[in-house]
């Protein structure tokens, strides 16, 4: 980790024009590091991710992406940052194949006047291979299973070869094989030096693949190494009064942690 | 009159040749743009644009005669495209409000036309087109308008398809929804301009919607949609003009050319629909789609989660 972090937030706040947002964000993610973003529903996890993308306005503090201040035009970020949305509401009858979906990840770099070439097709194949779907490229996207579609969209996010990958609840609704495949993908991305910020309800996942954790609940509650942040006290503070609608986990912190 | 006369020789007559040239260019463009209309579900906006164009045609006609038609319609269509893009973006879903505005523009158009000397003739030309009486001087403007629509669509085609498939994903990837919608709606508007001058404002929608629908029935391959729609529209226009010519010259039945073309389109659509039924290809509507991936499922957290802190050291390798 030689150079500056891929993402740096200093006292940043992102606020929807209509109100609601997340504030007090102090966070650094280095190349090859994965950070879990944890908090109750409505805590502003998605807002934070969209704020990094420039889709939700920043109302305080500063942001730096790839060593550049985030105030350079938002679209300058997009070559660097890729986003996997929580659930894409996609028409299964849309006539498009998996590899055509993944190719969409290359469009940004192509601009308006160029069409995909050999290098782009190679990048699509690599992205498909890295999510374990290389044999299904020609398949209509709508015929894939839900988990395969999610992995296909991840491949699209990877096809642009981002330095920072933002994943919004990527494990929701995944069965075990798809979940394992996603864990493997995140690990190999880290080996390749990609910085990953993943919002999740899955504390187990945070332990499996993440180096640090950010707890948010409207504002940043805590941030640091997994073992130090995922303590009973922190989680109770973060989830206080929320009545645990976070899937099924009753916000039980594994006992061996101490706290 | 023989078949070859109707299909080929007829078009050596200057007015038939002009009609064919304009219709072929327009058909190809309408086919390509129409695929996007279909994929985006923009039929309502397209319908709105046909109404918005009408007062422009009418005012153009009154101010500048037939030479004023294309400029008047172009201005009205682009203004309509901007207005409808804005309405859509503002989240105004009140179809009634949009319909009131659009019928208002239509009535303004009728009132303007009623002030012209040849009221019924002018109205008929605007509503039902005048593909067989396109003056030579109007061929170039109509072709240019069509080609501008084609170029605007072609340049943004990748991003338009991305947006049609996954609007949020496209936005997250840095594409401006506003720009893409303005370009697409302006392209539709320009097709409407060219089509209103040929087959008439009332029949424009057929040109924009039928070829795209035929392509969707025919293939599930994305990039085949465009050539199929364009080819269908071109062949349909050609056969429509030929059939109208054969019936009016050969059989003495005087058919309006625009309506005959649309009739051929609809017959073609019906044949393709029957064919796809026969091929058992109808998937849409049967709704055997798999459940969406968005369903939340409880995640079990084993309490023995072993912390892994491995990959930090490997981070320095870079890409």
From TrEMBL, chain A:
Gene Ontology molecular function: ATP binding
UniProt keyword annotation of Transport present: yes
Alphabetical UniProt keywords: ATP-binding, Nucleotide-binding, Transport
SMART domains membership: AAA
Ranges of residues in domain ABC transporter: 7-242
InterPro entries to which the protein is assigned, alphabetical: AAA+_ATPase (IPR003593), ABC_transporter-like_ATP-bd (IPR003439), Metal_Ion_Import_ABC (IPR050153), P-loop_NTPase (IPR027417)
UniProt xrefs under Pfam families: ABC_tran
Similarity comment text for this entry: Belongs to the ABC transporter superfamily.
Name by which UniProt lists this protein: Manganese/iron ABC transporter ATP-binding protein
Organism: Agromyces neolithicus
UniProtKB/TrEMBL annotation, chain B:
Biased composition, class Polar residues, residue ranges: 290-307
Region (Disordered) location: 288-319
Protein localization: Cell membrane; Membrane
Transmembrane parts of this sequence: 20-41, 53-86, 92-113, 182-210, 222-247, 259-279
Chief location: membrane
Record keywords, A-Z: Membrane, Transmembrane, Transmembrane helix, Transport
Membrane protein topology class: Multi-pass membrane protein
Source taxon at top rank: Bacteria
Similarity comment text for this entry: Belongs to the ABC-3 integral membrane protein family.
Protein's name according to its UniProt entry: Metal ABC transporter permease
Organism: Agromyces neolithicus
């Amino acid at each position: 980790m030689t150079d500056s972090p891929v993402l740096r937030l200093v006292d940043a706040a992102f606020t929807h024009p209509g109100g609601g947002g997340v504030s007090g964000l102090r966070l650094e993610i280095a190349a090859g590091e994965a950070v879990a973003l944890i908090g109750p529903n409505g805590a502003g996890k998605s807002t934070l991710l969209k704020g990094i993308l420039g889709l939700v306005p920043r109302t305080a503090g500063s942001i730096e992406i790839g060593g550049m201040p985030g105030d350079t035009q938002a679209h300058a970020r997009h070559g660097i940052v890729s986003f996997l949305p929580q659930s894409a509401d996609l028409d299964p009858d849309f006539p498009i194949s998996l590899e055509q979906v993944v190719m969409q990840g290359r469009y940004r770099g192509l601009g308006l006047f160029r069409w995909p070439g050999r290098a782009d097709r190679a990048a699509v194949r690599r992205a498909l291979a890295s999510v374990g779907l290389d044999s299904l490229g020609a398949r209509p996207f709508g015929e894939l299973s839900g988990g395969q579609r999610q992995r296909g969209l991840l491949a699209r996010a990877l096809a642009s070869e981002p330095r920072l990958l933002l994943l919004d609840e990527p494990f929701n609704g995944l069965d075990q094989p798809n979940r394992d495949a996603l864990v493997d993908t995140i690990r190999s991305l880290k080996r390749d030096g990609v910085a990953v910020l993943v919002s999740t309800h899955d504390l187990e996942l945070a332990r499996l693949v993440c180096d640090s954790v950010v707890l948010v609940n409207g504002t940043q509650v805590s941030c640091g190494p997994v073992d130090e942040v995922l303590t009973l006290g922190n989680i109770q503070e973060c989830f206080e009064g929320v009545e645990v609608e976070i899937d099924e986990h009753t916000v039980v912190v594994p006992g061996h942690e101490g706290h | 009159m023989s078949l070859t006369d109707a299909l080929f020789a007829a078009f050596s007559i200057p007015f038939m040749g002009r009609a064919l040239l304009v219709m072929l260019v327009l058909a190809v463009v309408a086919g390509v743009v129409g695929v996007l209309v279909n994929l985006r579900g923009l039929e309502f906006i397209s319908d709105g644009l046909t109404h918005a164009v009408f007062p422009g045609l009418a005012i153009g006609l009154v101010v500048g005669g037939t030479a004023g038609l294309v400029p008047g319609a172009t201005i009205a269509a682009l203004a309509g495209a901007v207005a409808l893009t804005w309405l859509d973006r503002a989240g105004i879903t009140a179809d009634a409000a949009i319909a009131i505005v659009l019928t208002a523009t239509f009535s303004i158009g009728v009132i303007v036309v009623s002030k012209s000397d040849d009221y019924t003739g002018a109205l008929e030309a605007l509503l039902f087109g005048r593909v067989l009486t396109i003056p030579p001087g109007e061929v170039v403007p109509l072709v240019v308008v069509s080609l501008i629509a084609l170029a605007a669509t072609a340049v943004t085609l990748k991003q338009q398809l991305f947006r049609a498939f996954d609007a949020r994903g496209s936005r997250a990837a840095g594409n401006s929804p506003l720009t893409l919608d303005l370009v697409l709606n302006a392209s539709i508007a320009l097709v409407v301009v060219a089509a209103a001058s040929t087959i008439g404002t009332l029949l424009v929608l057929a040109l924009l919607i039928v070829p795209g629908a035929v392509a969707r029935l025919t293939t599930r391959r994305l990039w085949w949609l465009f050539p199929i729609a364009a080819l269908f529209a071109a062949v349909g226009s050609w056969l429509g003009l030929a059939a109208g010519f054969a019936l009016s010259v050969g059989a003495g039945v005087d058919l309006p050319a625009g309506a005959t073309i649309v009739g051929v389109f609809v017959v073609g659509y019906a044949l393709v629909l029957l064919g796809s039924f026969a091929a058992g290809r109808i998937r849409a509507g049967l709704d055997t789609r798999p459940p969406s991936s968005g369903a939340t499922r409880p995640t079990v957290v084993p309490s023995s989660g072993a912390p892994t802190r491995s990959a930090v050291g490997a981070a320095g390798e870079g890409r």
